[in-house]
């Protein structure tokens, strides 16, 4: 059998394999045979063995052991071996491979070869996988070949020059003089490469625009020749003479005519001729017309020409090809802002596209062209969820709920009207989850306004406490309610316990039911609310009081605007204690939960300061004492609302291999008032024994004039992870 038959036979055997394991076995045997052929040296079979290896590589199997064989074959004087070697280099090598540097000298020699076919092999390889170093070394050779006598070599050298410019942009000036002369060639392949090269030069270096704008008349003449030329079988595609070259020339004209009246005037007549004489019934003609439209709209063209371009896009909307309709709609959305009246003539056609079965065409149609927005909203009722977000309902974005709540809180004069309207919407339909969440929030906040029934904007309706609780229970029990919606409803029910008088026991019963709910979020809320009813009933009114007005610039309420920056509070100076705090009765005790306002967001502990003591946020304290590692010497601040009253320093001391840990807490007071009756309590897991020594005192002088120290001994027989604080509570009085 001849070598070519052996390759064909290998392909036939591999394709006849019935299992993947059988195919792998065939590949392994062939690769072993190929390796042995490579080791035998120059036996005339190396090129055929490499060809077989390249087929194996195409199937996805490793073929890296053939890289050095590619280098050897490229250096061979035989064209048949050199051809396979260059093909292997393009497939098996890239610029990251060290072996690619070994072929640089061979490529340079072949670029000066007497055979144009050997030169073309070297040019193709350099254009395919040439690294920046290879491009720098071989750029002069490529520039020389741009002036070669054979158009075959010029075409490949031009495309190779494009690759060099992309790899090494600073070499662009080397090819600028030769690029202009290539436009005088008659060969379409050379012209195509020249236009691509000039386009690359203009995009990489805007300074070259002035030089190449002088070539606009020449480009216009070439384009006219293509439009008016007679039938040529060599270049004709679906009745269009070389549409690939036409598209490339139109793109270059668009770059040269942008923001330049002289260049734009020189190409206006040509663009009108192309727009009127090109047949759009075939894809090739539509491609040329589309590039023509883009060029007309991007240069300083005449108004009549722009209207013609919009009319072409209007005809595209009637095309059966969905891709053509899509690009037409995409272009119209860009044009509508500048040529509104021209687009207005095609409003009916645009509205008809809303009925298109292709979702991408619908998306481009609705929400973009403002003049047909009302029709778009009408048709959106039958669209998919990704398209229907302008219709609200269940398809609004996640941030819509908090943004709407923020807007409601700022409009205090509309609270009564809002809660009445949302209550009516809630009892009518609970399918729209986002609306139900906002309604539940408003009922929980402004339920007292709903019970009064005094709303001037709408007809007064008498609503009882049972009516409101029935509506919220419906939301809680509905299978349509999401866990988030049930959370809103449960919180609203709890808030109503401070806004109604006769049904508090019913609210307590509703809340207790969800203490064993399978949903952990609802269960946690219910357990906490039950604790408010029992252990902390004296605090319930304060905890559930009406929310203050939300600042849209505060964290979490950006209303979609992320441009604003959040400024850190200035903690360099102690802030004065609120006057209201000084007037509180001496018997009132403030614990840690009330001080910090509560948080359920897990945060990472702040690093220990290395120089001047700084203060961290109150949320850090909860996290610091909630199970994370305590850093010895770490300082943190306690707040009541935003008013700092002191700093606690934690020092941990543990001997090596000891089960005992000593923790020292040092409290200081930076406010203007003394802190009295200061106590500290802590809880640890059952595996750790806790012993709290007596504090050094219970009064912390103001202005940092004194401090209180308390020592805590931890016995950790099981050597569990420390610290083990599960709960820490501070009690104190502000004098």
Compose a concise summary of this entry.
This protein is of the alpha+beta class.
Radius of gyration, in Å, reads 40 Å
Helicity, as a percent range = 40-55%
Secondary structure: number of strands = 9
Beta-strand share of residues: 5-15%
**Widest sheet, order of strands:** 3-4-5-8-7
Mean pLDDT: 77
Query: Main beta sheet: strand number and arrangement?
Result: 5 strands, antiparallel
Task: Compute the number of helices.
Answer: 33
For the terminal residues, how far apart are their CA atoms?
107 Å
- Gross morphology is extended
Uncertain stretches = 368-372, 555-647, 723-729, 731-735
Structural class: alpha+beta
What are the salient characteristics of this protein?
single chain; 735 residues; alpha+beta; 5-stranded antiparallel β-sheet; two-stranded antiparallel ribbon; 9 strands; 52% helix; disordered C terminus
What does this structure look like?
The protein has 735 residues and is an alpha+beta fold. It is built from 33 helices and nine strands. Helix 25 packs parallel to helix 27, helix 26 (465-477) runs antiparallel to helix 27 and helix 27 runs parallel beside helix 29 (520-534). The chain is extended.
What is the secondary structure topology, with strand pairs?
Blueprint: H1 3-15, H2 20-39, H3 46-58, H4 67-74, H5 79-92, H6 104-111, H7 116-129, H8 132-145, H9 151-167, H10 172-181, H11 188-204, H12 209-212, H13 216-228, E1 236-237, E2 240-241, H14 243-257, H15 261-277, H16 283-298, H17 303-316, H18 322-335, H19 340-344, H20 347-352, H21 359-365, H22 373-379, H23 400-410, H24 415-428, H25 433-452, H26 465-477, H27 483-495, H28 504-513, H29 520-534, H30 540-543, H31 579-582, H32 592-596, H33 618-624, E3 634-640, E4 643-654, E5 660-669, E6 675-683, E7 689-692, E8 707-715, E9 727-734
Antiparallel strand pairs: 1-2, 3-4, 4-5, 5-8, 6-9, 7-8
């Amino acid at each position: 059998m001849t070598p070519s038959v052996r390759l064909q036979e290998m392909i036939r055997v591999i394709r006849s394999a019935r299992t993947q394991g059988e195919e792998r076995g065939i590949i392994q045997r062939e690769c072993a045979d190929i390796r042995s052929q490579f080791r035998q040296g120059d036996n005339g079979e190396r090129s055929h063995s490499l060809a077989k290896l390249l087929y194996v590589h195409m199937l996805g199997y490793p073929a890296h052991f053939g890289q050095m064989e590619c280098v050897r074959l490229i250096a061979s004087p035989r064209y048949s071996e050199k051809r396979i070697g260059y093909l292997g280099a393009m497939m098996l090598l890239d610029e990251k491979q060290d072996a690619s540097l070994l072929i640089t000298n061979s490529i340079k020699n072949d670029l000066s070869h007497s055979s144009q076919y050997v030169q073309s092999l070297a040019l193709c390889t350099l254009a395919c996988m040439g690294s920046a170093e290879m491009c720098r070394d071989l750029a002069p050779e490529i520039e020389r070949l741009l002036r070669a006598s054979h158009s075959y070599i010029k075409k490949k050298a031009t495309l190779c020059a494009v690759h060099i410019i992309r790899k090494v942009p600073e070499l662009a000036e080397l090819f600028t003089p030769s690029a202009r002369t290539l436009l005088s060639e008659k060969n379409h392949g050379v012209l195509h490469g020249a236009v691509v090269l000039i386009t690359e030069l203009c995009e990489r270096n805007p300074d070259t625009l002035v030089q190449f704008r002088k070539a606009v008349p020449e480009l216009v003449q070439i384009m006219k020749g293509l439009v008016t030329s007679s039938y040529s079988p060599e270049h004709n595609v679906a009745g269009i003479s070389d549409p690939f070259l036409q598209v490339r020339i139109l793109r270059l004209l668009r770059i040269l005519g942008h923001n330049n009246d002289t260049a734009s005037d020189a190409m206006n007549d040509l663009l009108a001729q192309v727009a009127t004489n090109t047949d759009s019934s075939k894809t090739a003609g539509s491609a040329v017309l589309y590039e023509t439209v883009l060029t007309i709209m991007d240069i300083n063209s005449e108004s009549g020409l722009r209207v013609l371009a919009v009319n072409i896009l209007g005809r595209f909307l009637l095309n059966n090809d969905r891709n053509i309709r899509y690009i037409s709609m995409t272009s119209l959305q860009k044009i509508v802002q500048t040529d509104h009246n021209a687009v207005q003539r095609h409003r009916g056609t645009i509205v008809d596209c809303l009925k298109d079965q292709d979702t991408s065409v619908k998306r481009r149609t609705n929400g973009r062209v403002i003049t047909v927005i009302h029709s778009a909203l009408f048709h959106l009722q039958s669209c998919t969820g990704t398209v229907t977000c302008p219709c609200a309902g269940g398809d609004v974005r996640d941030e819509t709920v908090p943004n709407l709540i923020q807007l409601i809180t700022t409009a205090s004069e509309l609270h009564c009207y809002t809660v009445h309207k949302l209550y009516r919407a809630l009892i009518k339909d609970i399918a729209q989850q986002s609306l139900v969440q906002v309604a539940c929030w408003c009922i929980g906040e402004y339920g007292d306004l709903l019970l009064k029934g005094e709303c001037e904007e709408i007809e007064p309706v008498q609503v009882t406490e049972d009516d409101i609780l029935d509506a919220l229970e419906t939301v809680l029990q509905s299978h349509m309610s999401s866990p988030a919606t049930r959370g809103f409803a449960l919180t609203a029910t709890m808030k109503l316990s401070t806004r109604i008088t006769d049904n508090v026991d019913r609210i307590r019963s509703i809340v207790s039911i969800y203490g064993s709910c399978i949903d952990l979020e609802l269960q946690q809320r219910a357990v906490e609310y039950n604790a408010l009813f029992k252990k902390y009933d004296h605090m319930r009114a304060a905890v559930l009081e009406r929310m203050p007005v939300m600042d849209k610039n505060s964290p979490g309420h950006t209303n979609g605007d992320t441009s604003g920056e959040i400024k850190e509070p200035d903690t360099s100076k102690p802030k004065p204690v609120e006057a209201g705090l000084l007037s509180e009765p001496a018997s009132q005790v403030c614990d840690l939960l009330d001080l910090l306002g509560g948080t359920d967001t897990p945060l990472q502990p702040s690093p220990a300061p290395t120089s001047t003591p700084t203060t961290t946020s109150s949320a850090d304290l909860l996290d610091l004492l909630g199970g994370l590692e305590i850093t010895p010497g770490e300082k943190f601040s306690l707040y009541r609302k935003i008013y700092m009253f002191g700093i606690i320093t934690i020092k941990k001391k543990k001997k090596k291999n000891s089960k005992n840990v000593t923790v020292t807490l040092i409290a200081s007071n930076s406010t203007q008032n003394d802190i009295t009756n200061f106590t500290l309590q802590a809880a640890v897991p059952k595996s750790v024994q806790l012993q709290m020594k007596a504090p050094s005192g219970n009064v912390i002088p103001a202005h940092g004039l004194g401090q209180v120290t308390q020592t805590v001994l931890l016995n950790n027989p099981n050597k569990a992870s420390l610290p083990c604080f599960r709960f820490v509570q501070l009690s104190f009085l502000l004098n």
